[in-house]
Amino acid sequence: MPGEIKDWNSKVVLLKLETTEGVDASPATTANALKVQEYAPQFMDADQKVRRIEKAFFGADPVTMSAFKRGASFQMEMHGAGTATAVPPWMIPAQICGFATPAPGASSVVLNPITAGIKSASHWAYIDDLLLKTVGARGSMGFTIEDDEIPFFAYSILGVPPLALAEQAVPAAVTLTGYVEPLLASSENTTFTLDGFALPLRRWEMNSNGENALRSLIGPADRIKMSNRSWSGTIVARVPSLTAKDYFSKIRPGSFMPAQAIHGTGTGNIVQIDAPRLQISGNVDLSEEDGETMMTMPVTAVPNAGNDEIVFTSK
Q: Which of 130, 167, 265, 291 is the most buried (most CB within 10 A)?
């Protein structure tokens, strides 16, 4: 009987950018469905206000819940949109993570970071016929490129639930558009350079570390405010000959290095990531892999002129 058991393995994830922040954009299964992996909803995150009422007996105090928030995390595979100037689906949630409206050009689509005017989104998630709604969502994003794995973008979003924390509704049929088959990261499909050198790469992962928090005042509606971001992550790679490239000499002076990854080989399914000022920003570790010396370098992407620390291009 519908509704008796909620099938955890039956999920529909929708996200639509809002015209007005915090006003439900009513995402549709025919136009706003996302193809995601590892979807993890956070049903609620609220503050507990304990009412410390004096009494002549033992017992718990009543609680009032306030400052309701709702989050979710998920991944989306890294790929193009099928044609060089079409917007790939992963660029939609990126816009609530501190990126501008994608800018199609003659042969590519560029996604640049911004500081002001960051968009919000309405996010609906069906777990079977259990519907969780969120409005005014903003978030953080990251990416992972690892050898012999499908690269992906990772998103963590935070929004405000409506008064009804859950509804029961069966989702309509889902239409997915703009998705193409992803490629494994490999020497054939992927290139990576750090400071102009083709570093033998095991993994490059970064996260925007967006500072998103509920802003609540008497009068205006509660909203999620992004107050900063700071892209950082790690590079795991084989230690090269120091005569060919000495990254260790970059640590003490805090040198900046351009990093670039290009994943994909055919027009319409190429994603390029540029970090023009990457800096080794933590303790470097050495390890062994199949008898070879590997290094793990914590790195931070630092802005240059501003709003340029990480740029994504689909082409």
A: 130
